[in-house]
Amino acid sequence: METINGVSFEDYALAAGNLSQGMPEAEVLQILGIEKPVWEDTNARWGTRLGELMMQDMQYAARYGEIFANPRQGKFAGASGGQTAEELLHLVPDLDTYQKIFWHCSVAEEHGVDSNTVLREYGLDLGKWSALSMHYSKQGLNTLDVNAPDYNEQFEYYSEQMDRWENYWRNFYSNERVDAAGDIEF
Amino acid sequence: MKQQELIGRWDIFLRRMSERFRQSLMQGQQAVLDSLKENDYNYWASLRTLSAVKSQIDDSVIKKIDETWSNQVYPMMEADGHYWTEEMDKGRNLEDTMNKELELWHIETEGKLGDLFFSTAMIHLSQGMQCPRCSAALEMKGNPFVSHYLSCMYCQATHTYIPDSKWAMPWGNVIDSIARYKAIKEYQRMTDVKNVEGTKAVQQSAYEKAAEEYLSRFFEERVLLIPATRETLAQDKEAQRKRLFHQLN
Asked: 3-class DSSP state for residue B160?
């Protein structure tokens, strides 16, 4: 098993997942049994290594995402804080709500609004959102099976939701657009 | 002479849009740089401002050329005669030029923003550090943006240096953006070489050569900014090389 400063791939993903869900860094370091300078070196090197591994095999990205979204396991099993996607579903109970928030974040960013600010409006933070994104991504992969008899129907359903929410938020923010060439006409 | 009138109006429209585009780039860049001090050196907030400004220029200037062509100019010219294809190309060529300039503007603005942040951060991070045990001045060794261990030259005690996260968190993005800006000529050559004539093998070879020159310059600049990054230079360069060649394929 590959390790960097004694920290495995799984422990790195768990640490990152717990940090994103608000676990204090000091607690993460205590669980891993390392000091801050060692963690910063480990974090930087695993970040680079993960990029290399993902280019060789996308399974690493999927595995990292799964662990990141469900960080209360392994060394962090007994730790405080951190929630699984299932525990968070009361905040984002269905795909329609998920698409609404996704496009809100996406379009807001184009207008200079930080995603964290948007997520807070829904009682979420980046960590919780990552866990929920993983849940709905998996759901999407299971539902959109090209071999299933209802594939076309499901595809249209997903596309309609995405288009509806994207247009909604673009319209919402359109009044804030600065038109740099509004006075120039043909 | 309706043809001449329509072409004349289209030329004037395109010239005004071109002038407005250049003005927007200049004013937009200044707004982004000014935002850094205004938001008390919150680098991420200024990066979001950059993204918003770029998006606005793209939507309200570049995309307007195609919208105006499709909704107004083309219907009139098409009804009038068969000369519209050449006029359509004028619009498309201008959009292509603007898109390329906007990308280079992004690299330049992000680089200047990074430079502003970096120079201010270095002032704050290099403010006199003292050994908590013997009060001697502690010499900064290594990367001032990351936590690491420092030894006191006088009493040999080892201390953990932890930089203020406000300055430390963006450091990777900051030095990358400065290095990218410094290597912008090599970057342009790398993107231009995709249009070189020849077989796919010739194009690939030309791209790989230009990419190596870009990477060399990029990493040279990174090491100049933070000499400690030389320790992981080979590994970082290899990771970037794979990414660039992966994009090509």
From this structure: strand
Question: Is A178 close to B56, i.e. CB distance below 8 A?
Answer: yes
Please report, rounded to a whole number, the percentage of residues in chain B having pLDDT higher than 90.
70
Question: Which are the contacts of A38, defined by CB distance < 8 A and separation ≥ 6?
Answer: A5
Tokens of B203: 């194009």
**Do the beta carbons of residue B157 and residue B151 sit within 8 Å?**
yes
Are the CB atoms for A67 and A14 separated by under 8 Å? yes
Question: What values do phi and psi take at B94, rounded to 5?
Answer: -65, -40
CB contact under 8 A, A55 and B242: yes
Separation CA A116–CA A130 (nearest Å): 12
Q: Which of A36, A37, A180 comes nearest B56 by C-beta?
A: A180
Whether residue B47 lies within 8 A of chain A, CB to CB, comes out as: no
The answer to whether B138 and B159 are in contact (CB under 8 A) is: yes
Instruction: Determine the residue of chain B that is closest to A35 in CA distance.
Output: B160
Which one, of A73, A55, A56, lies nearest residue A18 by Cα?
A: A73
Read off the tokens for B220: 């040279």
Nearest by Cα to B157 from B182, B179, B135: B135
Out of A40, A179, A181, closest to residue B147 by CB: A40
Per the CB < 8 A criterion, the answer to whether A139 and A94 are in contact is: no
For CA atoms A40, A41, A42, A47, give the dihedral sign: positive
- The C-alpha angle with vertex A131 and arms to A125 and A133, in degrees rounded to 5, equals 95
pLDDT digit string, tens, across residues B232-244? 898 889 888 887 8
pTM for the whole structure: 0.85
Mean pLDDT by 10 residues, chain A (186 residues): 94 91 90 95 90 85 84 85 74 93 93 90 88 84 82 91 94 84 94
What digits encode the pLDDT tens for the residues A29-73? 999 999 999 999 999 889 888 888 888 888 888 888 888 878 888
- State the amino acid at position A89 in one-letter form: L
Contacts with B148 (C-beta within 8 Å, 6 or more apart), sequence order: A37, A40, A41, B142, B160, B161
- A chain contacts of residue B229, beta-carbon cutoff 8 Å: none
**Which ranges constitute the DSSP H helices of A59-150?**
59-69, 85-88, 95-110, 115-121, 126-143
In the block, tokens 């932890």 appear at B162
Stated as kind and residue range, the H or E segment containing B14 is helix B2-38
Give the bridge partners for A3, in sequence order: A8
